[in-house]
Amino acid sequence: MARTLDPAAHALRRDEFIDAAQRLIQSRGYDQMSVQDVLDDLGASKGAFYHYFDSKADLLTAVVDQIIDGAIGVVAPMVADPGLTAPEKFQRVFGGIAQFKNARIELLQGVIQAWISDDNAIVREKFRQVAVRRLSPLMARIVEQGLAEGVYTAGPPGSVARVLLSLMLGANEAATELYVARRAGTITFETVQQMLAAYGEAFDRILGASSGSYPITDEATLRLWFD
Q1: Which of 71, 77, 93, 72 minimizes the C-alpha distance to 217?
Q2: Cα angle at 210 between 205 and 213, to 5 degrees?
Q3: Which stretches of the chain drop beneath a pLDDT of 70?
Q4: Which domains does the chain carry?
Q5: Alpha-carbon distance 163 to 212, whole Å?
Q6: How far apart are the first and last CA of the chain?
Q7: 186, 168 in Cβ contact below 8 A?
């Protein structure tokens, strides 16, 4: 008799592999992590691993998808809120992402060095690709709304959304590098402010919004991370 698959148990066990991989990537780097490391962490067999994933690269995709799912969980309700204007939605998106990070500041601070290491270059690029593909449609909806409201003068929503998301990811990468430099004492707080403000100005220009409409982050968050 064929064994009956329990979907909930299947998903839970799969998530355990993803969580283990994320822990190992954070502590060792993707290049240094092997499938055997994941198996040892969980006390699992190779057969169990290949039941859920075709390869180490397939597992990486699952890790990145899980991270992006968290971001979508923060952003999607704001985008869908019919009571918000397009500018309000973008501001809520920035604020929501900042709150998400601030609530996990100790965890994120602990993995920043690992994240920017050469060993995780593949992870960062995979994250960028998946983020652009999955989050661009949400951004495009806000741009389309802003054009309809007459508050933006940007081009086609889909194309503009991809550019905006790439800019946001670039700002996040820059903020990570600035954090490391600030901890090392090689840059001033004012330098951090100026750099991230430049990303906000670029965001304004792409949308055709007035200057200062979309600061990438707020003063309190900057102080929390960089002061």
Answers
A1: 93
A2: 90
A3: 1-5, 107
A4: 64-226 (1.10.357)
A5: 19
A6: 64
A7: no
- For residue 46, the tally of other CB atoms under 10 A from its CB is 10
- Which pLDDT tens digit goes with each residue over 147-193? 999 999 999 999 999 999 999 999 999 999 999 999 999 999 999 99
pLDDT score at 195:
93
Q: What is the rounded (10 degree) CA torsion for 219, 209, 211, 220?
A: 0
Backbone angles phi, psi at 158, to 5 degrees: -60, -45
Instruction: Please indicate, yes or no, whether the overall pTM of this predicted structure exceeds 0.85.
Output: no
Is residue 204 within 8 Å of 214, Cβ to Cβ? yes
Q: Judge contact between 207 and 147, C-beta under 8 A.
A: no
Instruction: Round to whole Å and give the CA distance between 191 and 189.
Output: 5
pLDDT tens digits for range 5-22: 577 777 889 999 999 998
* Spatial separation of the C-alpha atoms in residues 76 and 131, rounded to whole Å: 14
